[in-house]
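Annotated sample (chain length 182).
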Amino acid sequence: MGPALALVELASIARGHRVADAMCKRAPVGLVRADWVSPGKYLVLVEGEVAAVDEAFTVGVDVAGNQLLDRLILQQPHAEIWPALAGEANAKAGVESLGVVETKTVAATVRGADAAAKGARVRIVEMQLGRGIGGKAFFTVTGPLAEVEAAVEAAIGVLDAALVHETVVIPAPHADLSAKLR
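Output written by the structure step:
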């Protein structure tokens, strides 16, 4: 994946299609995701070189207009972000302590997960981005308890408090719970 990513989150599925098209036409970026999530929101996620992503992001936000819910641009996202976005992050390697950060927007979850991974020695276990959960999003991390606590604090520290729905830290979660994590 590229050294940068941008996400535009919209309140309109129709406008989302137009934003995706405009972003891809404006700059040489890879379209990672362009689809709907509950409740009728639309996500456009692109990756590529920093300058191209920045240019696509600028036009995406402009075209989104009054349908823009949230947005995110990350230069040099943590390496844990890419597999999590692809749904590849998992708990198969075991869960020590568990941190969960639940947000009201997808962009906030990606921003928080990047800060968590950069701010502590944790592994992203999963990231769910709005589909089937009422438009909310969340990510989970695992690692030693102190690192999980630091990761959750790092995530909260970069987010607007109004976008944080709930956070939880569970020291040594029960094996049955750990087995159910994706």
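Annotation: The chain has two domains: 4-75, 81-180.
Annotation: DSSP finds six helices and eight strands in the chain.
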